[in-house]
Amino acid sequence: MRKRLSEVLSLTTTRRKRVTMKDIAEKLNLSINAVSLALNDKVGVSEETRKLVIKTAEEMGYFEENPSFLSKSHLKNICLIIEERNFKDTNFYTKVIWGIENEAKANGYDVLVNFMKKDLFEIPSCIENRKVSGILVVGTIKDEFLAEILSYNIPTVLVDHASFMFSTDAVLTQNIPGSYRGTKYLIEKGHKKIGFFGEKDFSLSFRERWLGFKEAMRDAGLPVNEDYCVTEDVERHVLSKNYEEVANRLKKLKEFPTAWVCSNDSNAITLYNALNIMGIKVPKDVSIVGFDDIDMCNIVTPPLTTIHINKELMGIKAVKRLLWRMDNPKEFHDHIRMEVGFVERQSVRELL
């Protein structure tokens, strides 16, 4: 059942007295053995009783007082939650998930993948029924949805996202240094009129890449000309591959830059297609730098210069952090940043 954000927040912060199996048994008029069987997912009790025990244990705060209960049990499952459109967009998250599944398998865990809609979130049954030891949230998620997840007090790690409202472990990319490097490369190639293409408030990663772009321009003594930038209401056209609409947006610019830094490779490839509709050639007429280094970077013409992320390693690091969190539930949360690399291809023209 869905809860209001205020209700969920209270669940994550309210202190309760220590609850035991005996307390649960007395409340439900069951034996301690029956409660133990239900909580440990063993035969000997009906499914209806099992669900009732789990629900009551949660309401009484049993799992909050026993945060390592699931991680130390036989439940060798990890719940992976990802927004459906993010998974379908590119192979970026596909490779992250490969890394997650391989590392989980190496440690004896199965991964249960759950897709969510952008504005419709339901707690996966594997979480609701306490059948997982840990949770990985891959990509962006609204804080109100994250609050519902955290209310179950199951070890959770965010992947390619972080929350400013809740203290959680996260595995992220060095977005600012990466975008800074891509922008600096264009400047070194003689470009001064540089724009940014990508919805800067779509995700934390995009916001940080926008900041890295601005920082590189500032350090080079170059102005950030908003007339060169497309930073609002564009991601829906990128996700739907509506190149005509993007071309229409570009036609409204007062002036074109000589180069664009893009929030990711999907935006860069969308830009390729929109410019092609307009008869503008890359890199003859305009240069482009992407971010992520997805497989399409080598397929498009010309091949895209971009910032490289080891996506499988991101997934591996996420699982390692989750397993560590299971064993260290009281330690401080941390944000782990993935190093990035630079891949020079053929999408940038030298102006010197």
UniProtKB/TrEMBL annotation:
GO terms for molecular function: DNA-binding transcription factor activity; transcription cis-regulatory region binding. Coiled coil: none annotated. Residues 19-76 form the HTH lacI-type domain. The keyword Phosphoprotein does not apply. Keywords: DNA-binding, Repressor, Transcription, Transcription regulation. The keyword Transcription regulation applies. SMART domains: HTH_LACI. This is LacI family DNA-binding transcriptional regulator. It comes from Caldanaerobacter subterraneus.
